[in-house]
Amino acid sequence: MIEGGRIRLNRWQQAAVAVGSAVGALLNPRRADLIAALGETTGKPAFERVLERMKRSPEGRAVLLERPRVVSAEVGHVRDLPPNTFGAAYANFMASRNFSPDDRPPVRFMDTEELAYVAMRAREVHDFWHTLFGLPTNLIGESALKVIEFEQMHLPMCLLSVIGGTARFSERQRSLFFQHYFPWAIRAGMQSTDLMCIYYERNFHEDLEDVRRKWGIVPAPVPPKQNVT
After folding, report:
1. What dihedral do alpha carbons 28, 36, 101, 68 form, nearest 10°?
2. Residue 88, domain member (yes or no)
3. What's the structural domain count of the chain?
4. 127 labelled binding-site residue
């Protein structure tokens, strides 16, 4: 979980890392390490609230106790599941984009092992959420998912990412996002179950539409024009 080791920072150091990461991420949104650092240095209170919610949830407590990891060694078997299942849909999502679950940066700036795991869990289940909500990984899709994540976890990084993402939209993208994706994402984030309190790995074998209904997830709307990047 913390292969790179944790780094303890005072408040001034946290602020410096946060500002530097925010500027760097705006200049180069593909820098996952900077986005991760921004999330950690600005999101401790939010992660603490998520941790408390998980402790109050039977399924969330099971996740905290067993600490499952979304890495190839643990989730590689989903490629062999029937095509209608949640696990197969996730495998297809990853394969179609040549993504690996092992590519997530380690957690470095959380104070405790427990908080570090919560931050890592949020990072690792991100692609489950793409799969469940039917969101692409383009600028619009990522921005819409960040709206849902903000509704769910209230991480400042999510709000900053939406602001930064929409600033880079073309006029056509901006119109599409605010007319179709943004209103849906607000509703989707509010009406779905607590996404951090789900033991996703126990549901890989279930039908994708069944788990969507069980968790109150409504897939993204089909926009009027496809293939917007």
Report:
1. -170
2. yes
3. 1
4. yes
